[in-house]
Amino acid sequence: MPYVDLDDARLHVEVDGEGEPVSVLAHGLTNTCRELARLTPFVRGTKVRFCFRGHGHSTSPATGYGFADFARDLDAVARAYGATRALGTSLGAGALCRLLAADPDRFERLVFLLPAGLDRPFRDTARFLHTADLLETKPRDEAVDAVLNDPERLAMYERFPTMRDVDEATWDHADLGALAQAIRGVVQDVPIEDREVLRKVTAPTLVISRQGDSTHPAKVGRIIAELMPNAELLEFENDVAMYEAITDIVQRVSALVAA
Q: Of 2, 135, 158, 246, which is the most buried if we count CB atoms within 10 A?
């Protein structure tokens, strides 16, 4: 598999498709580059998926797990492949915001999928720190089993049985201790210092959010869509409505990326 080197990390990269445009995809916290792998074949052009530091099969530096570091990862991969489009999910959306705060014109098209935060403290701290504790104190199999059998996840699996297979595939992390560091780094940080800087981002943007998600509040998606002058918001009533609209979402993303 290809990789991208930074001064403190080597990032695992996987590439789908070919030709223009080139899009970089940044995954969510505790996920990997395979998070959206089942959907990227339906999007035009070259799609570059990578694992953030401490995730998947990327390397794990001893320190450096704040949003500035994840933004460096995203920027390095985008530059290595000449990406002009960017899609960020949750953590990836936060890293994308951090990058745009420093360079509002960094990308020509943007997609924010389930953004989790902007410039306010993290909301779900206790639950995520508990996950970090599990990863640091239990053997690998026990830790992953405990995560996958969290009551909230079990409730989701009842609604969407296939998601358990997806989660089991994405929990293929080389270093669970580093993943715990990444969790702690994220919940103790904020993506950007001042949300108002996003008003300078003029690229056509699609923001996708859903109601009833405590980790990814729909309010965050609304704020991003209000701040960015050329943003469109797709907000769903709940996770079921969003799941049922997957085909339409992929079509909307593909149309934006291809424009």
A: 135
